[in-house]
Amino acid sequence: MDYYISGADFQKELNNYYNDFQEKSTFIELANNLYIKELLLTKQPNLKKYKVGTQLTDEEFENILEDYPLILPDTIFTGKKTAINEDIFPREKDCFIIQHFHNVKSFLHIHDFFEMNYLYKGKCKMNFEDDVVIMNEGEFCIIAPNSKHQIEYIDDKSKVISILVRKSTFEKTFFGLISQKNLLAHFFKNILYDKGRSNYLVFYTIKESYIRDLIKNIMLENCNLDEYSNSVCIGWLHILFSLLLRNYSDTIDLYFKNSISIFSMMLQYVQSNYTTVTLREVSNFFSYSETYTSILFKKNLGYTFSDLIKQMRMNDAKNYLINSDLKISKIALKCGYKSTDHFSRMFRSEYNISPQSFRKKAKHKDI
Question: Which residues, 6 or more positions from 1, have their beta carbon under 8 angstroms from its beta carbon?
Fold first, then answer.
């Protein structure tokens, strides 16, 4: 059975607890107290005033946050549970969308699901073990399961929208995106699933209206009671994540324990120079030996440096062949190959087809 309370009432109870005891309560502790005191609703309030798909103003959306129902499944009311796991998800829901409340006891914690935090308003501080990131309005952070993290508001007016996604759902829904052969996909696949590290991605987006509209509608859809709601939420999340990867991949800040700044900067350097860069150049630029640099790429991405460069070039080559009328010789140069013959040999070894034949099949939609 699920229980409900409005966001405004839950925040009020958090404030009352802090005023009464001069300390903050954890999310689960307060939920249990409200359950014991029978202050939770057994029927979800319906936000009939607002329809999913409409372009809500910021003022309208903030009014929704006041009324927005916090869903509390009865599984979190058993015993003295303090750990956070998928038990907090409403039944039949693959994602759980809430606002991050003020006056919640903040501490480094882990959980077994993905957490996506969108800074809707103001500023907040994200702590990841030894790393601290200041997030500004409109920025987006994805935290992998089993990653130690902590959210702290910097002021009383800030608002963070948290989208929590079951790990199995994340893997299934975004498999097509993270299985692609590009640098970010390799990082995502090999680093974000490493349980031995705290891992996150931060997209340094600006206050884009289309991202804000998606967040608003996903949140409103999440409290819909019909049988289509879950599928609609997952569909919109897929669109949101795809747009983030398309438009903000070059802004990503990558964190993984023990290599945070070094490998993140290496990735950015390679991303900007992959048509000409060599392992020696990367090693010299970052003052490491070629052997150590090679190990970093293999360890963190699962591929050798040369394989990554080849795949990045090949991906660009396919895009040029499909979407342009450039001559093969021009495409070879744009992808970092000095010789058309060399490019053709590399392309054939990768795809078992010549560039000319690939283009011909692509135009006839045989690929």
Answer: 42, 73, 74
Question: Among 148, 255, 130, which Cα is nearest to 191's?
Answer: 255
Which H or E run contains 127? strand 123-128
Q: How many residues does the chain have?
A: 367
Give alpha helix (H) positions in 41-182. Answer: 58-67, 167-173, 175-178
pLDDT (mean) for 289-318: 88
Q: What is the pLDDT of residues 193-240, one digit of tens each?
A: 666 666 788 888 877 888 999 999 898 888 887 889 899 999 999 899
The pTM assigned to this predicted structure is 0.70
Tokens read off for 312: 């990045």
User: Cα separation of 189 and 183, whole Å?
Assistant: 10
Please tell me the distance from the alpha carbon of residue 72 to that of residue 32, in angstroms, as a whole number: 10
Q: Hey, how many other C-beta atoms are within 10 angstroms of the C-beta on 60?
A: 13
Q: What is the largest CA-CA distance in the chain?
A: 77
Question: Looking at this protein, which amino acid is placed at residue 121?
Answer: K
Q: Mind listing the pLDDT tens digit for each residue in 197-207? A: 667 888 888 77
In the DSSP assignment, the letter for residue 24 is P
Residue that has been written with the tokens 């249990």 in this structure: 32
What's the first-to-final CA gap in the chain, in angstroms?
A: 49
Dist. CA 213–CA 209, nearest whole Å: 6
* pLDDT attached to residue 79: 57
Pairing of strands 131-136, 123-128: antiparallel
DSSP letter assigned to residue 228: T
Q: In this structure, are residues 233 and 95 in contact, taking their beta carbons and an 8 Å threshold?
A: yes
**Beta-ladder partners of 152:** 125
